[in-house]
Amino acid sequence: MHTAGLPARRVVLTGGLAAALGALAGCSSASTPKMTTAAPPPRPATPRAAFTRLMEGNARWVSGHLDHPDRDPERRELVAEAQDPFGVILSCIDSRVAPELIFDTGLGDLYVLRTGGQAVGPVVTGSVAYGPMTGGTPLIVVLGHQRCGAVEAAYKSLKAGKPLPGNLRAIAKAMVPAYELTAKNPGTDPVDTMTHHQIKVTADDLRANADLGPLVEKGALGVVGAYYSLDTGKVDVLTGAPV
User: Fold this and answer.
1) Long-range contacts made by residues 134-138, C-beta under 8 angstroms, separation at least 24?
2) Given this model, what pLDDT does residue 39 score?
3) Are 229 and 146 in contact (CB under 8 A)?
4) What pTM does this model have?
5) Any idea what DSSP says for residue 72?
6) CA-CA distance, 73 to 106, in Å (whole number)?
7) Is the pLDDT of residue 64 over 60?
8) CATH 1.10.3300.10 fits 47-239, yes or no
9) CB atoms within 10 A of CB 59
10) Would you state the pLDDT for residue 38?
11) Nearest residue to 117 via CA among 84, 65, 85, 156
12) Cα 154 from chain centre
């Protein structure tokens, strides 16, 4: 700071203020412990541990007390060269169903696939199997949800015998097994009933898959069917919870 020409008293006050601020800063740094970043928990290595991690994250999502883990530049740099996710989530394309948010996870934690109504085909099944088959990812979650538009469209199309337009027909075709189960006992809300069936059918098919089945049999992989409530944010397990 240029002080030439300033009254001597003003120079003294300026210097005294700077000294006082310096002293306060010194006291603050001496009395306040430095914040340290806790080491991230180890990657879950078993289906049960992975399932527990996800459900703990969902509990935080429901309560609003989020950790927002693995979402900073340090994490980005850590996973830039290689990844090792602990779970695979097959969920719907619905904009309100974002797995990383629902389970309070972050970058590099999950493989995420999203299709209308969790509809599957060879490419989707192969993509789901990628993590468990190549990296030992221990958990797959098939995540359906409340008020699913894709399931509703498929249900109405199949019930009326009127095909959906264009490639949307492929989504309805993939849900025929769930529709047939629903037609036998539609319940009070056929669309929600079909959504539950679609989750269970898809999870069962993955559990019995020629590539994934052996991993399930030896306990290296869990396949969970789960249902997400748009109203509460809670994930409820329908089938396959690891023990």
Assistant:
1) 135/83, 135/84, 135/85, 136/220, 137/85, 137/86, 137/87, 137/88, 137/111, 137/221, 138/44, 138/45, 138/46, 138/47, 138/49, 138/50, 138/86, 138/87, 138/220, 138/221, 138/222
2) 61
3) yes
4) 0.83
5) S
6) 12
7) yes
8) no
9) 15
10) 55
11) 156
12) 25
- Rounded CA-CA distance 169/30 in Å is 68
pLDDT digits (tens, 9 = 90+) for 137-152: 999 999 999 999 999 9
Average pLDDT over residues 190-216: 98
CA distance 54 to 99: 10
Kindly state the tokens that stand for 166.
């264009």
Q: With bands split at pLDDT 50, 70 and 90, how would you rate the model's confidence at 1?
A: very low
Domain boundaries, given as residue ranges, for the chain: 47-239
Q: For residues 73 and 243, is the Cβ–Cβ distance under 8 A?
A: no
CA distance 155 to 176: 9
Q: Which residue has the tokens 């972050």?
A: 106
6-37 pLDDT tens trace = 444 444 344 444 444 444 444 444 444 444 44
Residue 185 corresponds to which tokens in the numbers above? 């006992």
Rounded to whole angstroms, the Cα distance separating 2 from 5 reads 9
- Structure tokens of 100? 């990383």
Helix (H, G, I), strand (E, B) or coil at 6: coil
Alpha helices in the chain (DSSP H): 8-31, 47-63, 73-79, 99-102, 122-135, 149-160, 168-174, 176-184, 190-207, 213-217
Q: How far apart are CA 181 and CA 68, in angstroms?
A: 39
Residue type, 191: V
CA 47, CA 164: separation in Å to the nearest integer? 38
